Amino acid sequence: MTALVAPSILGVLNVSPESRVEESVAITPEAIRERAARLVRAGADWIDLGGRSITSDAPMIDDEAEQARLLPALALLKNETMGARVSIDTWSDTTACAALERGADGINFTAGALPSRLLDTLAARRATLFLTFMPYENAYAMRAAAPAEVGIQAILDHLGPKVEIARGAGVEAVVIDPNLGILHPEIDDHRKIHQQLEIVWNLDRLRELDRPILLYAARKPEPLARIMMASAIVHAGADYVRTHTLEMILRLTGMRLPAVEDDSIVAKSKGRAGAAHGRGGGI
User: pTM value?
Assistant: First the structure.
């Protein structure tokens, strides 16, 4: 297999028990440490910490409940020598600002609006903004809304002004995410896959925004479909990949898989995480 340029990797760690990807879920402090250490040993540059499931039938929780899940986990990870940065996956600017004040390195922001107080906090903390295409108020609001347009032009029209607003507010590290996971519950599987691949195959158009691009390696139910989608993302040249299954991404890029049992990988990964921040943070 020809080696490809390896993207920076966001490994998913969910503290939401209702999340469907069970291997990403960690609730107790011991489980959180174990999942995070495994992600780092496997090569994660970032640990993407999530506290709410966007699955259409998952129970809804408020910001207070989300923070009760996320903030203790964030404190635990920041107190450990993990060798990876920590991002917070949220659409709440209240949750995001609270996490930044407690040391989060980035925000994977998934709301439709982009509040000024979040931008001010990101700029003051010199943190990374993963700016996600979201044509609804948030994933909960999507459930009751009509399906929105999600093509390349819609993504450009949505993200372009937001990139300029973020840069104007002093946020230097902005990464754009066309949101391959934004799947309206009324859209059938054929159209979902078609929409996802249209974005992946037209990634050069998103590069008009002159920002690094993050793609989500959508975790398809069937292993072969999962590999095919991840391979398409890797070949498209994404700068960042968000994934539940790091080993698959490393294998597809032709990188040698670390021995997950070898704790020395954690120390080695510190340098790699720093280099990744240099690519994504000095933009």
Answer: 0.85
Q: Does residue 123 lie within any of the structural domains?
A: yes
Quick one: CA torsion of 150, 156, 161, 162, rounded to 10 degrees? 60
Domain housing 115 = 8-281
Per-residue model confidence as pLDDT tens digits over 113-131: 999 999 999 999 999 999 9
List the CATH number of the domain containing 268: 3.20.20.20
Instruction: Give the tens place of pLDDT for each residue, 37-74.
Output: 999 998 899 999 999 998 888 899 999 999 999 999 99
- CA 21: distance to chain centroid? 15
Return the amino acid letter for 96. A
User: Residue 3: inside a domain, yes or no?
Assistant: no
Distance CA 121, CA 233 (A): 31
Closest CA to 174 of 185, 161, 183: 161
Phi–psi pair at 220, nearest 5 degrees: -70, 150
High-pLDDT (> 70) share of the chain, %: 85
Instruction: Name the strand (E) or helix (H) holding 224.
Output: helix 223-236
Residue 251 clears pLDDT 90, i.e. is over it: no
How far, in Å, CA of 122 to CA of 100, rounded?
Answer: 7
| Tally of domains within the chain | 1
DSSP tally for the chain: helices H, then strands E:
11, 8
* Residue 182: closest CA among 154, 223, 221: 154
**Within 10 A of 234 (CB to CB), how many other CB atoms are there?**
24
Can you read off the two tokens belonging to residue 191? 């159209």
Q: Quick check: is 2 in a domain?
A: no
How much is the pLDDT for 151? 87
Q: Give the residue-averaged pLDDT of 204-209.
A: 95
